[in-house]
Amino acid sequence: MTVLRVQGVSKAFQGIHALGDVGFEVEERQILGIIGPNGAGKTTLFNAISGTLRPDSGQVVLDGHDVTGDPPHRIARAGMVRTFQLMRPFRSMTVLENVCVATMSHTAAHREVVSGAAEVIERTGLGRWRDTPAGELPTAGLKRLELARALAMRPKVLLLDEVLAGLVPAEREPLLDLLAALREEEGLTMLFVEHIMAAVMRLSDRVLVLDQGRVLTIGTPGEVARDPRVIEAYLGEEPTGAEA
Ligand SMILES: Nc1ncnc2c1ncn2[C@@H]1O[C@H](COP(=O)(O)OP(=O)(O)OP(=O)(O)O)[C@@H](O)[C@H]1O
Ligand SMILES: [Mg+2]
């Protein structure tokens, strides 16, 4: 079943077309990798479909409901939540408190807020940092906190903007395993923007390639990796390498 349908979405900034006529569909429980050179419009796409920015035109349909241009909290309540490439936790608040802010989005009962947050903290491997102020977390902890805050809002569709960036391989692997498990065990649908090609290839069912705000191609990881246009968009870099 199609859970997300994006159709003809465009967004310009002072005449610069950051997104032009972007369209794609994502099936329930599928993982869509989104790649493209710096400035291709990947973050703008997340902004435009999650309510951070209003698209100039086009349509975003989530679970059969038109959510185009709705504010982020309403889209989150409808089931789609994103993480931020530039993380913004409340730095003086502990991990638990940060996640509680997110669980409060769907329940007001104090006990449920805390137990829901504690559950997400365990699930995301943040247990040992539970009472640590977010400002003191290492990058790997901050990335997990960003994920935890999104999960605490109980999304059906999760948008991940470079959750692996800045992590060393030994930190990436367990996080990739966690993302795979979230799909298997909780049926999450995911869209993830990522520059680390090995991760994209491993996790994605399909890969969407953005280039200068347009969909260059969409296909299986194998199809995309062999596509000469994709290789050209990366100026000859092999998109199957460990990193782009
Ligand atoms: N709020 C904004 N105001 C003006 N221009 C913007 C804004 N946000 C993005 N842009 C421009 O839109 C284009 C796409 O930017 P975007 O951040 O979506 O790229 P990206 O694919 O996420 O890049 P990266 O891989 O570096 O994160 C860029 O030219 C960028 O400068
Ligand atoms: Mg970006």
Describe the fold and architecture.
With 244 residues, this protein is α/β, with parallel strands linked by helices. The protein has a domain at 2-87 and 153-233: Rossmann fold (3-Layer(aba) Sandwich). Helix content is 36%, strand content 25%. The chain has helices at residues 42-50, 72-78, 95-103, 110-123, 139-151, 169-186, 197-203, 221-226, 228-233; strands at 2-13, 16-27, 31-35, 57-62, 65-66, 80-82, 157-161, 189-193, 206-211, 214-219. Strand 1 (2-13) and strand 2 form a beta hairpin. Helix 3 (95-103) crosses helix 4 and helix 3 packs parallel to helix 5. The structure holds adenosine-5'-triphosphate and magnesium ion.
Rg estimate, integer Å: 18 Å
Helix/sheet category? alpha/beta
How many strand segments?
Answer: 10
Q: Can you tell me the overall shape?
A: globular
Content of β-strand: 25-35%
CATH top level assignment of the domain at 2-87 and 153-233 = Alpha Beta
Q: CATH homologous superfamily of the domain at 2-87 and 153-233, by name?
A: P-loop containing nucleotide triphosphate hydrolases
Helix content: 25-40%
Number of helices: 9
The end-to-end span amounts to 32 Å
Unreliable segments (pLDDT under 50, ≥5 consecutive)?
none
State the strand order across the main sheet: 6-7-8-3-9-10
Tell me what the CATH architecture of the domain at 2-87 and 153-233 is.
3-Layer(aba) Sandwich
List ligands, each type once: adenosine-5'-triphosphate, magnesium ion
Mean pLDDT: 93
Could you tell me the CATH topology label of the domain at 2-87 and 153-233: Rossmann fold
Helix and strand pattern: EEEHEEHEHHHEHEHEEHH
Q: Biggest β-sheet, characterized?
A: 6 strands, mixed
